[in-house]
Amino acid sequence: MSQEDELINEQTVEESAAEAQALREQLAQAQAQAAEYLDSWRRATADLSNARKRMQRELEEYRAAAAERVIEKLLPVADDVHRAFENIPADLADDDWVNGFRMIQRKLDQLLESESVSVIATAGQSFDPALHFAVSHEEAEGYEEGQIIGEVAQGYRLNDKVLRASMVRVAKGN
Which residues lie below 8 Å from residue 115, measured CB to CB, with a gap of 6+? Predict the structure, then answer.
C-alpha cells in the first residue's frame, strides 16, 4: 500500500470517527429530548387526573350544598306540620282527613331521614352551645345547672353538620 493510500485511509477513518461522534451527540440530544417529552406527558397526565378529581369533588360539594339549602327550606314546613298535630282537637283526632295529613307528615319525616337529617336530642340533655340555642335561663326545681328544661323549637343536623340549633330553655343554678 502506498503512502497516498494510507493517507486516504487515515482521513476516511478520521472522518468516520467524526461522523460517529456527531451521531452519538445527536442520539444523546434526541434521547434527552425524548425524556423531556415523556416527563412533560407524565406531568400533563397527572395534572389532568388531578383536575378531574377536583372537578368531581367540587361537583359533589355543590350537590350537597344545594340539597342542604332545599332541606333547610323544608324544616319550617316540618315544624309547622308537627305543631299542627300537637294542637288537633280531641274530637278530630281520628278523622280520615287528619289521618291523611298524618300520612303526609310520615312521608315528610321519611324524606328527611332518607337524606340523613336527624332531630337533635334535647330531653334530659345538658346544654351544648354547638347544638342548642338558649332562649331563656330560668330557675327550675329538679334540674341541675345547665340542664335543658324544655324545647321551644326542634333542631336538626345533616349528617354531622348542624342545620339549625334546637331552641331550648336552660336551668339556672339556685
Answer: 67, 71, 158
